[in-house]
Give the backbone structure.
Amino acid sequence: MTLANLTAVPFTRDQIAVAISHSSMGAGHVGIGFHSVADGPQVLHLAWHRKLKIERVLDELTQCWAAEPCALPPSAGKQVVAFVRAVAKRGPTINYAVDFIASRGSFSGNGAYKAPKGSHGLTCASFVAEVFRGAGAPLVKSETWRDDFANREWGERVCKQLEADEHVEVGHAEAVRKTISSLRLRPFEVAGACRVSPKEWPATFDAVQGPAAQIAAELPGICPLPAQPA
């Protein structure tokens, strides 16, 4: 299976996809492609701190997206699509934070968001993972994720961006900084989990690494890398 441009995916009412794009930090950006009764295909993604976006695929996309359709059976697909619609309708306010272990269980069965105890928010990747978890189709087995010191450096970069953003409330960046660890769920790993057979969900860290690398290599062929400032 290879990626497709999100605009070329013929979404049915039981089809769900992980949408992947480029990010300013170079590690990808991820959301959920789904069918909306009123507006047709849409992408739902946590763009940044308290910026949950819902964009119509045909006329509202602000960037190029590729899609990895998840090979769920129709009944399970309908279940996940219904849950994603519920989350989108609620339009929750979600803080940006880096601890994806603490964020497990962020969504209740009716699609309502509430940060679990110890969680300060979600990333774009943990948002997608938690929506799937809330829908009863967990993508990843988070307890299998491995430490990587580079994740601490990434977490610190996130905190500096939060500190520089005048719209982020005082104290949030420091709260997030206290939760930085060597664990991180990356956008391409989420897409890689979607490429893994749902029979293997929740997918382990080792299982998603190969598909994640494939998707990272395929993305520039669909969405050219953004031009770097001179």
